[in-house]
Amino acid sequence: MNFKNFFLPASFFFIIFLYLFSLPPILSTGDGGELIAASFGLGSPHPSGYPLYVQIGKIFSLLPAGNIGIRVELISVFFSILTLFLVYFMVFKLSGQNLEASFAAIASVIFLALSYSFFGQSIVAKFYTLNSFFVMLLILCGTIVVLNGYDRRMQFIASFILGLTLSAHHTGFMMIVPLGVLGFFYFRNFLRNLPLSFLFFFLGFSVNLYLFIRDMKGNLFTMIPVIDMDSFLKVFLRKNYGAGSSIDVTASGFVNFYGYFYAFKNYLYLIEKNFTLFSIPFFILGVVWLFKKSKKLFIFVLTSFFIYSIFLAKLTFSMQNPDIHELYVIGHQYFIPSFAIYCGIVGLGSYFIYSIFEKYGFYSLKKIVPIIVIFFPLLMIFDRLTDQYQGKNYVPYSHTKGIFTSLPVASIYMTYGDNHAFQGWYLKLVGRYREDICHIVLDDYKTMVWALHGCKPYSLYRGLFPEFFDGNLIDLTEKYRYYSIIALSEKHPLYTVVDSYPYFYIFIYLGKSSDKRNFDTFFMERMKKIEPFLNYEDCLTHTTDDVYTLQLCNFSTIGYISIAKAYEKASDKDIAEVVFDQKLSYGDFTAPFRMKLKVNDENEKYLSIYNAVKKYNKMDKFHLSGKKNEKD
Questions:
Q1: Mean pLDDT (whole number) for 532-537
Q2: What is the mean pLDDT of the chain?
Q3: CA spacing 20 to 30 A to 549: which of 145, 313, 367, 621?
Q4: How far apart are CA 134 and CA 168, in angstroms?
């Protein structure tokens, strides 16, 4: 067996093992719970509906191994490996197609596989590695045309894939720009076959018909039903996101050109955090190699890279100082295709150096250096196993299960924002846990417009919660059956009629006219009864720097104070109070949280847990946090 036949399969087997080893054991945070529930029930998640991902997810959910969450997470591993193989193939094909070329390609594969964001997206239930695979597949189509000459079959295949990208993630469709530029070089043949290309495009696009088909009859989970063309366009174009809709975001690339400065700065920051600035010289050499190889290829690949790096950053990531939320939601996810292209070009730069060794007679270096270079990216594995490994991350599951378990029979549970909501849907719809609870999701902190996905079938829950469905919320609060993750502030419509009190990890709503003495007795008894469900071990052992996991653990600290409060004693009257005074954020809104606690021998351990969880889950653990965030 020669070196190539050993290193190539060994590298891919190692990466597959590493990804499988690092998968979240039940579900990932963020969109994970929603995408798993939608895949399991063959439904439709948030706009644009992601019909291709959901259908693939349904197939994966039928695998005869692991739980439903892990099966759907395997989609990311599967398409990540396919993307990495395309990177290998492109580097090998565009370099010397010899042993050194294979080593350069393997090194770029490992470099990409172990980079922070690519690794992170390869182990969670998300659609970004699927999107990267489509982008790299389209680049391969264009490369074949350049190397082998115009082939209308490539044009038809690329048209079909372009249509397909619109059923996965819309940014995949941006490949129409570099493909259009490439078509200019072959404009006679390109135009001649354009009508038939439209046919292939719509064939790929037809996967979106799934949204109509699945909503003809009710299914387990649909975020926004598609019943006609208006509702289809609303979902497909993401109109409910306002300025974040697909059309408005695209238009923002052609205004305020000063924003390109921040786009470049922010993208360069991502390169530094993922690959270090030492990779840039290899990237520049790779660009030179492409130019020497083919001017058409140079223009095509560089245009692709610009579209998925600087231009995409202008659309989504051109703020002057991105905060931790923007770094996590945008910087950590959207640029995976550009990273794949970047590592491919870096691989070509490495091969360029090997060809220089040969040119000037450094034959020993030519043989030794390519093998050594393969091992350099492997050093990143130690970082990934301390910031991206999620094999012990039970937090999104145990946190939500703890909340559900703590609630009295037939309670209303109200969440706000994706994290709590999506995990709740997973437990309710996939896990079928606590079906006596009606889980509602508030869309806007300032309104009382909520979604009822966690109360299906509606006919059943209408019978269980006649007060709620008749709009009598005060009656529910007087029965101690209305709970929420939302602490109330004057911005919330309920602020004038109910008070919110800490209850385990969340809050209980109580009418302002209710008898507080009865509530105090209820609170004390209830906290002691549900104390065994307090799970702090998961927030001290999850090992990941996942922002949503850190947020959940910080949010859970309310529970430790609540339990400690229940163990105050009458004999504590002379003990000085410890005041917990902070603000809880809900998007753009904040609500006060204040509790006074007298610490005695019996409840002191809960204060120790509070401090330990706060310390372990500091938000500056996040790898992409800038210096400003680290100081905060």
A1: 89
A2: 91
A3: 313
A4: 9
